[in-house]
């Protein structure tokens, strides 16, 4: 038994180290993209989507699906895929947003953020005032400001300049000194939302913060302990705040908490019917590509809206035995798109389709 336990621990340690290596390794496109501020689009159309890690997916106002992946940012028009960034940057892309004006924003690891207006790409980096060049999340607030979650804190762009907000240990504050981080500092803002009251929420690898425009407050549970290592924050149609991360899946109604699971949850999403979708790991402590048993433990699940106020609500598992599951989005036709370690997938309510390149 001791030998088996040691073997499982070694498997778990190896998987964790592998994830850290692939996530924290520098982007090979950084120096190229920092030198090139503006460039035209050089698109490459393919019959398939990305074959590797896909972190974030959105649908734009025209119905196109946009996919942020390690192979670039892909656009799917319902017929074919186009790698929109193949001629612009070789960086890994983690985040994508369409703002209210129809402009696209692409967050990369190592090369900052790209603005795309349909014709021209413009690159913003620490040289322009961005806090850090690793951009894992992007959000637009009600005033039209674009927020970038990066390592070390967050940057707000108003169309002219950046304002930066830095994580200082257990606190978060606005920086007035013009500081930027050329290297990756501790902690990262993983998710940003603005709630119905106008407060901004920042999930980080450390504390979770609520910002009222003046002060950052650490968000805490009923027992006084802070929410740490939250990966996704979401506000549902009823105004409840959902927190997904290392402590599992929690819902906050402004007064009390409901805990749906204490196993790790990486992503939470509400569809048009009010169902809650999650990507999660069966092992609460797992941080690597596999659970401690050595088996693939990630799954895509759905909590039906009618069950959300049942204390014993259990989700329906839609896809199991994945290495990892990332961003989730519902398309206008009701299909659910989600990213994994090996590309993008679409669930139409009956079957799951992947869009990987087929072996010849």
Task: Present the secondary structure layout.
Blueprint lengths: L1 H23 L5 H6 L2 E3 L3 E3 L7 E6 L5 E5 L2 E5 L4 E3 L8 E7 L5 E6 L3 E4 L3 E5 L10 E6 L5 E5 L2 E5 L4 E7 L2 E5 L13 E6 L5 E5 L3 E4 L4 E3 L11 E6 L5 E5 L2 E5 L4 E5 L3 E6 L5 E6 L16 E6 L12 E7 L2 E6 L5 E5 L2 E5 L4 E3 L6
Antiparallel strand pairs: 1-10, 2-6, 3-4, 4-5, 5-6, 7-8, 8-9, 9-10, 11-12, 12-13, 13-14, 14-15, 16-17, 17-18, 18-19, 20-21, 21-22, 22-23, 24-25, 25-26, 26-27, 28-29, 29-30, 30-31
Description:
Helix content is 8%, strand content 44%. It is mainly beta and 360 residues long. A hairpin with a 4-residue loop joins strand 30 (343-347) and strand 31 (352-354). The longest helix is centred in the first third of the chain and has 23 residues, at 2-24. The radius of gyration is 20 Å and the shape is globular. The N and C termini lie far apart (45 Å). The relative contact order is 0.11.
The value of Rg in angstroms is: 20 Å
From the spread of the alpha carbons, the general shape counts as globular
> How far apart are the first and last residues' alpha carbons, in Å?
45 Å
**Any idea what the CATH superfamily is called?**
YVTN repeat-like/Quinoprotein amine dehydrogenase
**Second rung of CATH, namely the architecture:** 7 Propeller
What's the CATH C level? Mainly Beta
Mean pLDDT: 87
Please estimate the helix content: under 10%
Q: Specify the biggest β-sheet.
A: 5 strands, antiparallel
* Secondary-structure class: mainly beta
